[in-house]
Amino acid sequence: xxxxxxxxxxxxxxxxxxxxxxxxxxxxxxxxxxxxxxxxxxxxxxxxxxxxxxxxxxxxxxxxxxxxxxxxxxxxxxxxxxxxxxxxxxxxxxxxxxxxxxxxxxxxxxxxxxxxxxxxxxxxxxxxxxxxxxxxxxxxxxxxxxxxxxxxxxxxxxxxxxxxxxxxxxxxxxxxxxxxxxxxxxxxxxxxxxxxxxxxxxxxxxxxxxxxxxxxxxxxxxxxxxxxxxxxxxxxxxxxxxxxxxxxxxxxxxxxxxxxxxxxxxxxxxxxxxxxxxxxxxxxxxxxxxxxxxxxxxxxxxxxxxxxxxxxxxxxxxxxxxxxxxxxxxxxxxxxxxxxxxxxxxxxxxxxxxxxxxxxxxxxxxxxxxxxxxxxxxxxxxxxxxxxxxxxxxxxxxxxxxxxxxxxxxxxxxxxxxxxxxxxxxxxxxxxxxxxx
Length: 437
Known about the structure:
six-stranded mixed β-sheet; Legumain_prodom_sf; signal; 2 domains; Legumain-like
């Protein structure tokens, strides 16, 4: 029989182990990947995420926020220093601290920040920068909002973060024991392609995405006064859900179900997805989106019923102007401004019409040029048809070829201007298929 001393020793050891686990910190990395006023939604989403994490008592030293930060003070913004994530919502900009701005918001810096590489950050930007300085007892939450393409998430100026580079960084963090568990929320078109078939299921990482690997994500919340889409369906849904939830009871899976329902509200909606270690979705939101001490639900932000984010259809050229695809944001914004231009001068109306015609022409040229390139590329017998390349939905198998193809297409076809127009990137799947063959 074990002695009283032995029993006490075991009890003490158990207490020490519990304290050790509970002493872990929660770290948060927030990324707004877009710049320019037309992409208002991206920076509004990131400031909302920052305020939500702070409201949930995560200390600022444990949050890293990357944002180009040009929307709040853009000349087009009718209220300077103001960002909202839904029409009539609170101003999220005051107190929205940012650690990396302007040209510092790049995939290279992001990967160094994520993996806790302080020296790597300093070499890239010439100064010390905050990183996710997490350890084996810590949890990490990453949320990213911007445009995306097959196998890529974009940073300002059409700079790609490739799925292989992201997942290699995640695997490196696992090997180096830089987290206990990690959750990633990725809000972009084709966001599922960042993880599908590539994120391991056994490295304690769980992710949800706004769309599957082959479809676009959707915007919401057009603000008539600001003349901009101020949120996305996926981002606005999960953040307002967190704002009103008891994060010590609601699970990651319950939040995923709320988001999934809202994203797939119509035939033109997207399919929110989950990847990685799905057993983690049973854990509560507080494990990643809050700190236990001092947490009080619903004390800072206005709450909003998720079902009210998606409205009835209002279209232009087949584009839903209430909930357009994220990559159609510029066309949709210009079309709404033109349709609602009763108070504008005829000169301004003509300017909007010219902008709309130009963008529609760029979209058509990008599509036709891709078809021409595919036709030229498979002119020799190869056992694959043009239709195979143009309609296939293959995963990235040759990442280096894909990177080179995107770079060449952007450099050799400046008139397409993929750095400015996300809708010009709709045909990138063809490049993946070509590289694979």
